[in-house]
UniProtKB/TrEMBL annotation:
<dbReference type="Pfam" id="PF01154">
    <property type="entry name" value="HMG_CoA_synt_N"/>
</dbReference>
<feature type="binding site">
    <location>
        <position position="143"/>
    </location>
    <ligand>
        <name>(3S)-3-hydroxy-3-methylglutaryl-CoA</name>
    </ligand>
</feature>
<feature type="binding site">
    <location>
        <position position="275"/>
    </location>
    <ligand>
        <name>(3S)-3-hydroxy-3-methylglutaryl-CoA</name>
    </ligand>
</feature>
<feature type="binding site">
    <location>
        <position position="242"/>
    </location>
    <ligand>
        <name>(3S)-3-hydroxy-3-methylglutaryl-CoA</name>
    </ligand>
</feature>
<feature type="active site" description="Acyl-thioester intermediate">
    <location>
        <position position="111"/>
    </location>
</feature>
<keyword id="KW-0808">Transferase</keyword>
<feature type="domain" description="Hydroxymethylglutaryl-coenzyme A synthase N-terminal">
    <location>
        <begin position="2"/>
        <end position="165"/>
    </location>
</feature>
<comment type="similarity">
    <text>Belongs to the thiolase-like superfamily. HMG-CoA synthase family.</text>
</comment>
<dbReference type="GO" id="GO:0006084">
    <property type="term" value="P:acetyl-CoA metabolic process"/>
</dbReference>
<dbReference type="GO" id="GO:0004421">
    <property type="term" value="F:hydroxymethylglutaryl-CoA synthase activity"/>
</dbReference>
<dbReference type="InterPro" id="IPR016039">
    <property type="entry name" value="Thiolase-like"/>
</dbReference>
<protein>
    <submittedName>
        <fullName>Hydroxymethylglutaryl-CoA synthase</fullName>
    </submittedName>
</protein>
<feature type="active site" description="Proton donor/acceptor">
    <location>
        <position position="79"/>
    </location>
</feature>
<feature type="active site" description="Proton donor/acceptor">
    <location>
        <position position="233"/>
    </location>
</feature>
<dbReference type="InterPro" id="IPR011554">
    <property type="entry name" value="HMG_CoA_synthase_prok"/>
</dbReference>
<dbReference type="InterPro" id="IPR013528">
    <property type="entry name" value="HMG_CoA_synth_N"/>
</dbReference>
<feature type="binding site">
    <location>
        <position position="29"/>
    </location>
    <ligand>
        <name>(3S)-3-hydroxy-3-methylglutaryl-CoA</name>
    </ligand>
</feature>
Length: 387
């Protein structure tokens, strides 16, 4: 029995910041961002959106009357949780009208959480092949205005159903993982912006990738020649390119050309959305499926990394030929309808945070299906405009 990713959906707000404009406002050479970081745009998150609303919007694209009653678990990976106690998955469960006979939990390990969800879901479905698991990776990346990490901000949500006989990617049993207690990135409870040791984090990322990739190959007897594409966690797309370059010498010249071309396909959407933290790897997978010429049976490697640090490498085989026209068409429409946000408007929205008291928010500028309307009696108020 094959188990893997059956459906996949994405959501991010419809405002974006052009990083050329940001570079000019910060008196930087735009190529520092466009080439040196590998980013061209980033999503701007209004105060009326949080990880719950974005997750619900992404998941609503793949949860229908056909599979709603099959969902037995919601696993929500995030490092942007909204409550110290209550899982963000519980809010999503209600907004999507999922059955009560369900587990709904939130997991955290920096950007790795959604991958833990995928692996846990895979094991669950193997034991319960008539059930499915909804796995979500949703985050808002914040480093602060006029900081070195500002160019690697962004946000959004990816939602996946893990099921038997999947339609997209059949996952292998083999996986390699590694963890070390390192301080390359962290956000204390008292801070709304993350702290990062950028150069150290890049080095740890590459070291972790090489370690888990080579361990995976040792376990399976596979080599880089067995992969049509390698996808990466992409806090910024140049980071994944550094990981790819670390193993390219192991490939033939022809294989190097294939891997480089497919990497470009896999980072096309991340360049324009920015950093999703837990969802970044899976947006890269979507970008690959939508933009590369792939064939059923092609093996795709996935490298997940969460600072602090946890890394995992696993793979799957493509179930259907691509291009995935539905994914490509969705993103074409999404990018076409987005609105550019000026640097001044971006800065204003960045500084607009929920207060620590009851408040009613103006949602008229937010056209999303799910919105945060405010706080009442210390409880976040969510609305489904289609309910």
């Amino acid at each position: 029995m094959q188990v893997g990713i059956d459906q996949i959906g994405f959501y991010a707000p419809n405002q974006y910041l052009d990083l050329t404009a940001l570079a000019q406002a910060r008196n930087e050479d735009p190529n520092k961002y466009l080439i040196g970081i590998g980013q061209s745009e980033q999503v701007v998150i209004p105060v009326t959106q949080d990880v719950v609303t974005m997750a619900a919007s992404a998941a609503s694209q793949i949860i229908t009357d056909d599979n709603r009653d099959k969902i037995a678990m919601v696993i929500f990976g995030t490092e942007s949780g909204i409550d110290h106690s209550k899982s963000a998955a519980m809010y999503v469960k209600r907004l999507l009208q999922l059955p009560d006979q369900i587990r709904a939990i939130e997991v955290k390990q920096a950007c790795y959480g959604a991958t833990f969800g995928v692996q846990t879901a895979k094991d669950f479905v193997r034991a319960n092949p008539d059930k499915q698991v909804l796995v979500i990776g949703a985050d808002i990346a914040r480093y602060g205005l006029n900081t070195p990490g500002e160019v690697t901000q962004g946000g959004g949500a990816v939602a996946m159903t893990i099921a038997a006989d999947p339609q997209i990617l059949a996952l292998d049993d083999a996986t390699s993982f590694r963890s070390e207690d390192v301080m390359d990135f962290w956000r204390p409870l008292y801070r709304t912006e993350a702290l990062v040791d950028g150069r150290y984090s890049e080095n740890i990322y590459v070291d972790f990738f090489k370690a888990v990739f080579h361990d995976y190959c040792a376990q399976t007897g596979r080599t880089i020649a067995d992969f049509t594409a390698l996808t990466y966690h992409l806090p910024f797309t140049k980071m994944g390119l550094k990981g790819l370059r670390a193993v390219l010498p192991e490939a033939s010249e022809q294989q190097q050309a294939i891997l480089k071309a497919n990497f470009e396909a896999s980072r096309a959407y991340n360049r324009r959305v920015g950093n999703l933290y837990t969802g970044s790897l899976y947006l890269s997978l979507i970008s690959l499926l939508a933009n590369a010429e792939l064939t059923a049976g092609d093996r795709i490697g996935l490298f997940s990394y969460g600072s602090g640090a946890e890394g995992e490498f696993y793979s799957g085989t493509l179930v259907q030929d691509t291009p995935q026209l539905n994914l490509r068409n969705w993103f074409d429409a999404y990018f076409k309808q987005r609105r550019e946000c000026s640097v001044a408007a971006y800065e204003q929205q960045f500084q607009q945070q929920l207060p620590a008291h009851d408040v009613l928010l103006d949602t008229r500028a937010d056209d999303a299906r799910f919105v945060l309307t405010g706080i009442r009696h210390d409880q976040r108020q969510y609305v489904d405009r289609q309910a």
